[in-house]
Amino acid sequence: MEGWKTTFVYNWIRCDDYFKTIRESLAKDSDLLARPITDHDVTEAKAWRANALERAIRKEREHATTQRQSVMSWLKNGGMQEEELDSQLSRCHPNTCDWLRDNSKASNWLKCGQDHKVLWLKGKPGSGKDAPICL
């Protein structure tokens, strides 16, 4: 559940900037429609929209850069990931992966060299695919 909450908040913050620009644009258009419009008003409105779009794009790029830097920093900190994996591994239920060891295809796969050790797990969200394999 926490993952969905984080995803929603992250995406909402990103969309909120665009919604704010749209709301401001609608307010400006409403003001223009409430009075006679001149060529100057149209030119000014076009310039405002162009600047608003440029600001939104710049803000999105800054946000993406910050996000990328945050992810790269997290990935470079391998010790934290190892600690998390060790913590999860210590919480495995006894006999957690017996089915994998008892399966002949899986056993053959485990006997392969390091170059061939790729395992693709698929299943419903939240079904435990990200749980550590206790082999």
Q: How would you portray this structure in words?
A:
There is one protein chain. By secondary structure, the chain is mainly α. It folds into two domains: 2-76; 89-135, no CATH class. Helices cover 71% and strands 0% of the residues. It has five helices and no strands. The protein has helices at 2-33, 39-76, 78-90, 98-102, 104-111. Helix 1 packs antiparallel against helix 2 (39-76). The radius of gyration is 26 Å and the shape is elongated. The protein starts with a helix and ends in a 24-residue tail after the last helix.
- Fraction of residues in β-strands: under 5%
Count of discrete alpha- or pi-helical segments spanning 4 or more residues: 5
**Whole-number count of domains:** 2
Instruction: Point out poorly predicted stretches.
Output: none
Give, in order, the helices and strands: HHHHH
Radius of gyration over C-alpha positions, nearest whole angstrom: 26 Å
What is the overall silhouette? Answer: elongated
Number of strands: 0
Helix content: over 70%
Q: By helix and strand content, what is the structural category?
A: mainly alpha
Largest sheet: none
How far do the termini sit from each other? 28 Å
Residue-averaged pLDDT = 77
